[in-house]
Amino acid sequence: QEKKIFMVQGPYPIIRHLLRARGWVERKLPSMGRQLEQHHPLHYTWPPAEEEEEKEEEQCDEDPSGIHDLMSYLVRDRLPNFIWTNFLEATDHELLQQDHVVNHYARVDAFTTKEGLCLSLQNLPWIEQADPNTFFPRCYRLGTIDEQEAFIEDFRLTAARSLLKLALEEAGDRPVRTKQVQNSAKRAGWHRSHVSHPKHSTAPEGSPLYPELVEEALEVCKQHLGVLRHQDIDRGTPSPCRTCINWDRFLQEYYRVAHEGAGLVLTRQQRKQCQSLLRHLAEQLPQLGMEGKLNVWILKPGAESQGRGIICTTRLEEVLQLARGFTAPSVRVGRWVVQKYVEQLLTIFGTKFDIRQWFVVTDWKPLTVWFYRDCYLRFCSWPFSLCHLERARHLCNVSVQKWYKTSPDQDPRVPPDKIWSNKQFQEYLAQLGQADAWHKVLVPGMKAAILNALRSAQDQVGFRKGSFELYGADFLVGEDCQPWLLEINSCPTMRPSSAVTRRLCANVQRDTLRLVLDRKNNPTCSIGAFELIYKE
Q: Which phi and psi (to 5°) does residue 478 adopt?
């Protein structure tokens, strides 16, 4: 009569314990919660989006008197009033009664898959006065011909800009000369930051770079700058990538400079031109700083999670080979996305990390978003290096890193369980002299990115009153402490992998129930670390 019957599917012992403590009765699922009775109108899917296919954890509270089992038996034929599950298919929402509370919305793949988020954010400028390039590394769906062509053009333009950066870096403060010369891989600085890919090189070892290389890069960048400055005036301007240069030859020579140690010597005039062009391009391209100079891109299956199938590469031909379905047969052709890798990122003790940030949507009409003030950092197992593109160095997912032993080269100050709380991160920033970066740069940047992502997909989500959803957004941090949104996860894992996540995952589940249940009857009740950041 009080409508306090709940159902839990998946490894959520905390939720079960907290609901029982509130006087709720569980309608149990048969077969350890993997399937419902045939007559039940709700149908569930297993495995969930971000949970692994493991047996459900033992529930954290015991039932020595058997009272919970007895009550569950008595409500076995009753529909639950509250459902917390891994994943609820969109068709199920049509069968729910109006007063049912469910922890999912339908059609959220518009922003919780890599492919969906990529497409939604492309449409953001038409919906909001916001530029996704300021918070989301540029991204392309390779299964779409137009986007594949746009990626090829982006890769080429990035190579041209990167060549100018490399030329300036190599020149440094040394006297300039009037011609380009071949340089060995051991010349000052190159062996520290570049990796050889001899199998890709088409030029004989020791052969000189062709003399027009820098001039071609300068010309391409000049034309691109002109397009950027006049893109709203003259949309008929031809693409700078359609200039009369041999792009295959240009890229092979760029690979030699970026990855095989070939050197460049600039004339005095070229140095000034490079500096001026890059300065003006930085005014037009928000990602010029973070994109680095090695042209690293990251390929991701468009609808996978837990780091499955993700590959880092520096070669255009490798990306296109994947897009055409010649490799990775487990991924359907056309479902790949390719995204610019954040090369200029903040590391901690020489190790890459990312941030898992929770938030809850309690309504889509009007859009109502709650941000969780606590979050955690996930570290890689091996030191960061752009010379080597192994997953252990570049993918921070716990589900990826658990398969790797900590490298002997890893700084011993990196936590053994590869997890930090945001409080520990704030202490670290303070040691760097960046004490205000968390509250003045990172948190506002994460909030803005989340809201822009939600607004870009708002019209596509299957809305219903009574539902809510807890999400986990993943961010990288640039050298300037700017957060870069990577993806948003439905069903963020609640399996603790460390003492930090054991505490924080329990807290966010507790506070979510306060937010969506307790607050209905008591609007002034505590909602823990949640704060309302947006309500239309």
A: -75, 170
